[in-house]
Design goal:
homodimer, about 200 residues, mainly alpha, Arc Repressor Mutant, subunit A, Tetracycline Repressor, domain 2
Chain lengths: ~200, ~200
């Protein structure tokens, strides 16, 4: 029973901090605000994270973990280049649309100043993901003997732009449902970039 | 001569402020910092802008003015639906790639807290632009008797995502040149969404 109560304090801190950063701005949020939102003592918070930078870094790392678990790992276990690309598009859109993870994953794309060493780690993981998508696009183009003039690299950036931009406009109660979005984006990308 | 020296102080303030907001964060930048960066007295700055919110609002408005002048107005003067859409893609990418305007236009997509009334004004202009793109896509689909299952709305969001995401990854000295980017994005979008 004790274990249940203490197993996820770090995740809860990251989630509460991410929410505050979005509501009132990163710079305007203090470690005290984060502690207060969680009814933690300052010491209780500092036991887990030494600084706001460290919290931001772990929010971004957690967002990359989510992408790795829910997108990359599933795609790796999928058979066939084309099905892998379709799966990636669907799962990445699902991560973006996930109400539960949104406050964490959206932080990946905000330009908050992070110390260079931490920034490099996050950027490295982002780049790995771009390469993963790029290779997948190349595989599908090869398999389809595609005559497309579109390079896998430009295609990967176009796809990630389409998907990550969803944060900017999507309303869960809007006329465009998640399913319709997956179908249409898959259609645009397959016809446009690997057809 | 006197006129030349005073004609653009507001624009210079906006530009310097945008630069500071990106370097050190919006919340961490004070009106004093902005005044100091421009070697202005605090009174001199407050003569033009009453608050940081007002500066941010005018940066965003200016970014929308740039889009209107350099993209929308040129597209409106262009003949033929297809050529209009091609022109829009090229000119919007050029605005994003413009080193000179980047610090202003990138601010449009940052989620800084703006008072609701000002936020609504900016969002209204952003929505007008989405509708403009959406109508253009519908025109091209109609003209081509397109059998695409892609709705103009989803297509417009996909296109704006592809283009506005360029801020996140583009390096002027990278292997993907601006021209190649325009060509490939036009190709992806035309084949994918209106083909």
């Amino acid at each position: 029973m004790h274990r249940e109560a203490t197993i996820e304090p770090r995740q809860e801190i990251l989630r509460a901090a991410a929410r505050l950063f979005q509501q009132q701005g990163y710079d305007a949020t203090s470690m005290n605000d984060v502690a207060a939102a969680l009814k933690l003592s300052k010491g209780g918070l500092y036991h887990h994270f030494q600084s706001k930078d460290e919290i931001l870094f772990h929010i971004m790392s957690h967002a990359m973990d989510i992408t790795e678990e829910r997108v990359i790992n599933v795609v790796r276990r999928t058979e066939g280049a084309e099905e892998r690309l379709r799966t990636l598009i669907r799962l990445h859109i699902e991560v973006v649309l996930s109400e539960e993870d949104r406050e964490i994953t959206v932080m990946l794309h905000e330009n908050h100043p992070l110390p260079p060493a931490l920034r490099r780690k996050i950027n490295g993981r982002k780049k790995d993901y771009v390469h993963f998508v790029e290779n997948l696009v190349a595989d599908v183009q090869r398999q389809r003997n595609s005559t497309s003039q579109v390079t896998p690299r430009a295609a990967a950036f176009a796809l990630l732009g389409m998907i990550n931009w969803i944060y900017q406009w999507y309303k869960p109660d809007g006329s465009l449902t998640g399913d319709a979005l997956v179908r249409q984006y898959t259609d645009i990308f397959f016809r446009g970039a690997v057809g």
